[in-house]
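Weekly puzzle thread! Below is a chain. First person to post its structure in token form gets bragging rights.
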Amino acid sequence: MLKTWWKKLNKCEIKKILVVSLTNIGDVVLTCPVIDALINRFPLAEISIVVGPKAQTLFERNPYIKKVHVFTKKETFGELVFLVRQLRQQRFDAVIDLRNTALGYFLGVPFHTSVFTHIDPYLHKRDQHWQRLQSLFSDVERTKKRYAIFIDETIRKKSENILRQALEYGKGYCVIAAGSADRKKRWTADGFIFICQALVQVYRMPVFFVGDILDYEGAENIIRRVSQGAVNLCGKLSLLETTWVLRNSRLLLCNDSAAMHLASYFDVPTVALFGPTDPRKYGPWGERSCFVRAKTINEAGEGLMTTIDPQEVLMRMKELIAL
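Winning reply:
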């Protein structure tokens, strides 16, 4: 019935759309192509989003996003009721719920995704979100335009100044994101040292390490064993500043992390390293990306990051950017 009504509805009648995204930064970035497509399809509509607190700053000062609502999994029942009341007051015309909750029903909007929609569990997570979008708006098409993450002039200039103070990068640079929230997803320090030394000493390519403050010491331990040309920016950049650094790099080497999804969103050449997680569902999704998977698995069926060969990683990097 929803699709029948939609065919009779002029797109100009959709004035306000709510996208319910996820919590962790990487998971939120995987929903950004849905936001892009909606903005492209409904250019006159107001787009608001619901995200977790970690990803809130990713949408700061974005002229294409009307309002960012923050949802935490630890909210009390009273806080949840307050959020629902706030959203009801906005009188949305459509809700795209990528969390697959009953929120759309509680908000009483005329068009919303259904909790009963079948989503192919074998698809990449990005494509699962796309399938949910198309279950409601089947005529929405993918776009290469990037609206969901907006980097303004202030962020660009600040990021450029940080890089200039850290290192001369006129010939381009590579980025390494050696951290991951899950220790089982982290490659070895020796592996990153091998790659870093090759980039800096053989190919004369500066390297910037990015991540949050928890990744700082790990990156510092790697850099101490590289003679020069590597700089630790972990914990020194905002989320949008990190995004700008990634977007303008020649290549990213990373574990399964938020940095990988940010680079994929902007189609930055990426080599991602995978052990316990499945790259077919969670891997890099840019056109110029690939992954290297662990060769050995443990008793739990998880790939062991220690079995990833640095020579294979370097070969994949060379293939992507023709070092």
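Puzzle host: Confirmed. Bonus trivia for everyone else. The chain has two domains: 2-136, 153-321.
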